[in-house]
Amino acid sequence: MPPLWLSSTLLLLLAILLSSSYRATAAAAESDGAASRMPSFREAPQFYNAPSCSPPLPKGRGAACSPHALVHVAMTLDVAYLRGSMAAVRSVLQHTGCPQSVFFHFVASSAAEYLRATVGGSFPSLAFQIYPFADEPRVAGLISTSIRAALDRPLNYARSYLARVLPECVRRVVYLDSDLVLVDDVAILASIPLPDGVALAAPEYCNANFTSYFTDAFWTNPALSVVFEGRQPCYFNTGVMVMELGRWRDGEYTEQIEEWMELQKRIRIYELGSLPPFLLVFAGRIAAVEHRWNQHGLGGDNYRGLCRDLHLGPVSLLHWSGKGKPWARLDAGRPCPLDAIWAPYDLLLRPFAIDDS
After folding, report:
1. pTM: predicted TM-score of the whole model, two decimal places
2. Is 334 helix (H, G, I), strand (E, B) or coil?
3. Are 78 and 108 within 8 A, CB to CB?
């Protein structure tokens, strides 16, 4: 797919126009009372496999182990971020050549029946399964407070437990956060080669100040900082990852991450949620992926939420990591220019909306 090039001025105009509609419908939804607090979504367009693809996957959990599953995608699902998740799923299906050969694995901690009905209603032909996050009570006891409350939700740590949650027949999975959209074929990302013994692939950002992700208590303690000896650690964002689950299990990486979380409870060695334990275990030991697959930070910084532009180069995935989410800014009438790219994937069913399907 060609690079995504859009004028910031054009995007801003589109975002302003969209925000007017979002403000009006959000106000109407608020007046509907408590019933509107559980969002409803319209049915997405149907996307079909190209002739060269394998046969479509059947619905139901049995398809998870089907040899025709071309790509496995894992995401978390909860009511608070469901709107973003639905847009992300639509973007995956819309831009892949074999949408009926993608199996979605969703991890949820509550409202499983509502989530199952909602996903199935918007994507009637989707092959997916929802798994309970059985390790949530344990994770809740391991979490230390971070700079932003949203980062402290146990479900935010579910990515560390996919090797336990997903069936053993699933060997490779693409993990995606809920605040992103793809504009390229997920099958390309899923086919990234991983060298022998490497369990994880993600875009690396070696120009970032890696030391800032850990406290002085970590760097001044030789018994701790020695963990990076012999490695060239670089920052990577855990919102987009290709994971080899068999290798993950063999390396007992979930247990290693938990050990660092337990240490964090005794000695504060980092500040930023679920990311630092990943860096401690994997930084300098992953397969690098092109930056086009995670144009992250579009939610702005964690303190002021300022609008950000794309990094230089082609774009295959836009990621609104950070404080600001596109749906919230659109509803509030304060969109950033790039939020206009997210808006067409939104499936929220608004009052008095005209069905365009």
Report:
1. 0.88
2. coil
3. yes
